[in-house]
What does this fold into?
Amino acid sequence: MRLAFVTSNPGKVEEARKYFEPLGVEVYQLKVSYPEIQADTLEEVSEYGAKWLAQRVDGPFFLDDSGLFVEALKGFPGVYSAYVYKTIGYQGILKLLHGEKNRRAYFKSVIAYWDGELHIFTGRVDGKIATEPRGSGGFGFDPIFIPEGFDRTFAEMTTEEKNRISHRGRALREFANWLKENLK
Ligand code: ITT
Ligand code: NA
It folds into this structure.
């Protein structure tokens, strides 16, 4: 089976590929841009995007909308994560948290799969924001995020390690389990 992943982000594609490879599913990147609406939740953003794409893309596809939610910043950047990353970057988040004791944060991923109907799969990982960036793996905010139970950032992990515990890995697991049940 081949699965189209609509995204501009090669880091996400790499993670989905690594996840699905052992299951005999080939993931390929479909670079079609879609509107990301301003909404309160990642679910709303991904649902709107998937329905918009459904009218323009042939065949099944999935997309992934993710965000980093920082407790001391009342959930910011959250649904604004892509914009924040492009503007102030992870250094900007570190600056906003300078001197802050509460470093708690979580990542969340919402995968929307369209096969004529919409299916939503989510995953979350709790952790904390490091005081300085570490590591060169991964992408985005990975150098500043330390998942619970570890002392390394996501950027200091291999893709396989990150997939085992990450928001995206968890959403991909739900997605893969659903596919197993529904493609019999
Ligand atoms: P799309 O084309 O798939 O939308 P994007 O990079 O814009 O790619 P998102 O809107 O889902 O993706 O991501 C919001 C931001 O959060 C973006 O800057 C990402 O780099 C970052 N991000 C998403 N997942 C991440 C992860 O697993 N680790 C670190 N940063 C992540
Ligand atoms: Na995006």
User: Anything to note?
Assistant: Residues 167-182 form the longest helix (16 residues).
